Amino acid sequence: MPALQREINRFQTFLAAQGLKLTNERAALVREIFSTHYHFEADELLFKMKEKSTKISRATIYRTLELLVRSGMVRRVHLGEEHYHYEYVSGNSHHDHLICTTCGSVIEFHDPALEERQLEICERKKFTPTFHNLQILGVCDACRRKGEHPIAPDRVSMIGEGALQLRK
User: Fold this and answer.
1) What are the structural domain ranges in the chain?
2) Which of 10, 19, 41, 58 has the largest CB neighbor count within 10 A?
3) What is the CATH number of domain 96-164?
4) Sequence-ordered list of residues with C-beta below 8 angstroms from that of 108, at least 6 positions apart, any chain
């Protein structure tokens, strides 16, 4: 069975447990999400679905995204803008983010030593972690080569105008 169909079946099982059905609109949205390989926005999904002549409302997209987040199949991430982005979760795909405050590019990384260090800190503090999200804001190599310099780390106000539309 193709991976995409497995994901649709997995979501259908989740929905059934909630007493909900997998509508044609939800299935089309899941197909779109799981064929998107970057961080995406809800309104971007609406635009892509309309481009493909798929009838779906903004409300259905937001409600379905919420269901996908609750199912654990999609993760909601805050990338320094005033709204959320989403990414699909594939197996044990935990990763962290480097976010360029000039152009908005997002670099995903995974560092086992860093993950281990975080667990050690939690253990030492007698803290049980359930989730973490590490984001490092700065200037990417391409922007640095153009002469861009880091600004004082004010989380939201330092996101440059060019970063309002993240690079795909």
Assistant:
1) 3-88, 96-164
2) 41
3) 3.30.1490.190
4) 95, 96, 97
CA separation for the pair 47, 54 (Å, rounded): 10
Render 57-124 in DSSP notation, one character per residue: -HHHHHHHHHHHHHHTSEEEEE-SSSSEEEEE--SS---EEEEETTT--EEEE--HHHHHHHHHHHHH
Nearest to 142 by CA among 111, 95, 104: 104
CATH code 3.40.630.30 for 3-88: no
Q: Is the pLDDT of residue 84 over 60?
A: yes
The pTM assigned to this predicted structure is 0.62
- Tell the residue number behind the tokens 């990384």, with chain if given: 109
Query: φ and ψ at 40, to 5 degrees?
Result: -130, 165
C-alpha span between 78 and 137 (Å, rounded): 12
Mind giving me the DSSP string for 149-161? ------TTTTS-G
Q: Which of 42, 41, 37 is nearest to 90 (CA)?
A: 37
pLDDT-derived band at 161, boundaries 50, 70, 90: very low
- The one-character DSSP state at 138 is E
